[in-house]
UniProtKB/TrEMBL annotation:
Catalytic activity: L-arginyl-[protein] + ATP = N(omega)-phospho-L-arginyl-[protein] + ADP + H(+)
Boundaries of every Phosphagen kinase C-terminal domain copy: 24-255
One family name in Pfam for this protein: ATP-gua_Ptrans
Database matches in NCBIfam families: PRK01059.1-4 (NF002194), PRK01059.1-5 (NF002195)
Organism classification: Bacteria, Bacillati, Bacillota, Bacilli, Bacillales
InterPro entries listed in its UniProt record: Arg_Kinase, ATP-guanido_PTrfase, ATP-guanido_PTrfase_AS, ATP-guanido_PTrfase_cat, Gln_synth/guanido_kin_cat_dom
Organism (species): Virgibacillus indicus
Protein name as it appears in the record: Protein-arginine kinase
Gene that produces this protein: mcsB
EC code: 2.7.14.1
Regulation: Appears to be allosterically activated by the binding of pArg-containing polypeptides to the pArg-binding pocket localized in the C-terminal domain of McsB.
Length: 354
């Protein structure tokens, strides 16, 4: 498995599958933070020690297979161009932090891109495992199994009282961040999301944009995740998150029904105007593209648009990002050049759906 494999396709293979409530929940993710017991955290460790960890992962796990996760590619971050790093971030295979702080850093990614391991990020090891739709319990089960597989060869930093020890105190305990990516256009249109976010935060959860901390909710896509990792079991954290997500799903469905009942013509006009922009624009900025893609996806969910699949929109949400556009063009592009290429690619991909 080579780096080019991950560069060629905007949509990860696992994203082509449908999951429970996939009209609203795009994906479920479990992230586990772990550290070697006998090495200082990356922020303090000697470069030589971090390079030893990097070499360990390459020697032990490159091209290995665990269950359904085949042929792990080992990718040193320092070997990547800035565009290649950006593409991996846009596909959620690595974090912006790993891309920026690449001292002896690496990524280990399965062939289907469902599992990625970030090496020497904020912690020595950060495991990410994704499932399509609303499948937090299944994602947690598989993440535990993968974690156990790594632990066969690694002595984790663990305290009987505090749990897993991590670089940031907010991750101590389970070391787990569970999150779901949700498409919430109706709650955004009705502005209900503005009062829901503070209420969610009070429950020990956090609402972020599509690329996590500090990012915007492009295309009405929100990431909901836990903040508390200490004092609760992984199962309890998942239960709390699932309860809130189920309520959000219910509120989103009700808001969609209400909009369709009260303002169906306005909604249809909004959806088909967005569809027209995507089909015929010659220049389109990323925010406008994300907004239009969100509206068209809603039109697909309502059955108003039947000749475009959800998958193509998932693909376009990544394909139209700056890094992927420049990877596609094989050169650095100005903002205007990106806007022109973005419009061209969207037209081309929508034509292929016919």
């Amino acid at each position: 498995m080579t780096l080019q494999h991950f560069m060629n396709e905007a949509i990860s293979p696992w994203m082509r599958e449908e999951g429970p409530d996939s009209d609203i929940v795009l994906s479920s993710r479990i992230r586990l933070a772990r550290n070697f017991s006998d090495v200082s955290y990356p922020i303090l460790a000697d470069l030589e020690k971090l390079e030893d960890i990097q070499s360990f992962f390459k020697e032990e796990y490159e091209h290995q297979t665990f269950q359904d996760y085949e042929d792990f590619a080992f990718i040193p971050i320092n070997d990547l161009t800035s565009t290649e790093k950006r593409v991996l971030v846009e596909k959620h295979l690595i974090s912006p932090h790993l891309a920026k702080n690449s001292q002896a850093a690496a990524a280990m990614i399965s062939k289907n891109e469902q599992v990625s391991v970030m090496v020497n990020e904020e912690d020595h090891i950060r495991i990410q495992l994704y499932f399509p739709g609303f499948q937090l319990n299944k994602a947690l089960e598989k993440a535990f199994e993968f974690d156990d597989w790594l632990e066969e060869k690694i002595d984790y930093a663990f305290d009987e009282t505090r749990g897993y020890l991590t670089s940031c105190p907010t991750n101590v305990g389970t070391g787990m961040r569970a999150s779901v990516m949700m498409h919430l256009p109706a709650l955004t249109m009705t502005k209900q999301i503005n009062r829901m976010i503070p209420a969610i935060n009070q429950l020990g959860l956090v609402v972020r944009g599509i690329y996590g901390e500090g990012s915007e909710a492009l295309g009405n896509i929100f990431q909901i995740s836990n903040q508390i990792t200490l004092g609760k079991s992984e199962e309890d954290i998942i239960d709390d998150l699932q309860s809130v997500v189920r309520q959000l799903i219910e509120h989103e469905r009700k808001a969609r029904s209400r909009i369709m009942e009260q303002s169906s013509i306005k909604l249809e006009d909004r959806i088909f105007r967005s569809y027209g922009v995507l089909k015929y624009s010659r220049i389109i900025e990323s925010k406008e593209a994300a907004r239009c893609l969100s509206n068209v996806r809603l039109g697909i969910d309502f059955g108003l648009i039947q000749d475009v699949s959800r998958n193509i929109l998932n693909e376009l949400m990544v394909l139209t990002q700056p890094g992927f556009l420049q990877q596609y063009a094989k050169k650095t592009l100005s903002a205007n050049e990106r806007d022109v290429l973005r419009a061209s690619l969207i037209r081309e991909r929508l034509q292929l759906e016919k």
